[in-house]
Design a protein that fits this description.
Blueprint (H helix, E strand, L loop, with lengths): L6 H13 L4 E3 L1 H8 L6 H22 L4 E14 L19 E19 L1 H68 L5 H36 L7 E3 L13 H11 L1 H21 L5 E11 L2 E11 L7 H67 L5 H35 L10
Parallel strand pairs: 1-4
Antiparallel strand pairs: 2-3, 3-5, 5-6
Helix pairs in contact: 2-4, 3-4, 4-5, 4-7, 4-9, 6-8, 7-8, 8-9
Amino acid sequence: MKHNFPVVVLLLLLVQLACAQQPLRLGLQQAIALASSPRGSAQVQLADAAVAAARARMAQARANRYPLLTASVSESNLTRNLSAEGFNFPTGVPNFTIPAEVGPFNVFDGRVEMTQTVFDLSAMRRSRAIGAAFDAATADAETNREAAAGQAAHDYLVALAADERVQTAQAGVDQAEAMVTSAQHDVDTGKAADTEMTSAQLDLAARRRRLSGAQNDAALARLQLLDDLGLDFNTALELTDKLTFRSGDDVDLAAEIALALRTRAELKTAAGRREQANDEAGAVHAGLLPTVTAYGDVGPLNSVITHTVGISARITVFDGGRRRAQEMESDAAVRQYEIQQRDLKRQIDLEVRRAYADLESAASQAQECDAARAFSEDELASAQRRYANGVAGNAELVDAETRESRAHEDQVQAYFNWNQARLEMAQATGTAESFEMK
């Protein structure tokens, strides 16, 4: 079970959430820790419950190794019909016949009984299968934590990108409002026609619509993130990380594939299921062997201490083909898990290679968007100077602002794609719980 985020910090988050006076300041790693914690997503909670059930079954299997000891006490008052039980024959003794009934009489019996399985290879293999099932359930819980961490990280990135788009749209609205004020001044002083004012107002309306859509997307992204973390939907979030991009990060594809094949919890689950199937098949094959049980009891029967000690062996002589059918079924299950395990390794290899290709492409696009953003900022600065000097008109400045805004939006999307590609690589290698911003 991996917990990459300090428990103390997680507790501090919960305390801050309980106070609920200020917005919950939330970083990416904190979001991952909350989502993958026992109080996080429903998938994690269900997986932990499955592990607890598997642990209980394993404890039951261990208990079968020990003797079963029971105690009983009884007091009975009996009357018996000897004739009905066959005691109606001549005794051969003159003047003596067996009475038709006896009693009533009292019988007291206090007894301690013990049974112990001495040898049962089939039960031993079934016990091992239960242990393998516990290992598989534990690995499956780890898979669910990884999935919850990956989903929370993805939705955190979506929320970050949505916030960036809101800021970009708000900056566009501020610029458009300034242009409306400037156009109004030019119209009032006779420096511009009414069409300049109309154009500025139309641009402002379009930018306000874009801001409204961006704000709605940001609100929806936060709701989804709160759902991932299992928090109340009224919780106010303040995201402390920022979308960033860092060029020059080389990724060793071969090393990432090796890491994935070593750490992916799905492979551990598949290995556990295969081992469980092997042990269950062994238990069926072991059904040919006898089972040996020792038993005994001791206690007073009225005033006499009586006891029984014995040992028994049991073997199936004929079962109508049941064992053979079970052998065929269990062998087929083993082959299925072997095929699934091989295919899973191939799929993991493919996922890592796809994530690597996406990461390389996203890095290239982010670099191009950085260059385009720089060019658009230079163009906007030049247009602003030309407009201030009266060389350029309102339309040229609005066009420059629009291109700069679009370049910024493209950059935000490129940064999101790059971080998302990094997250996909972390998910492909089974390290989503340790994912962090760069």
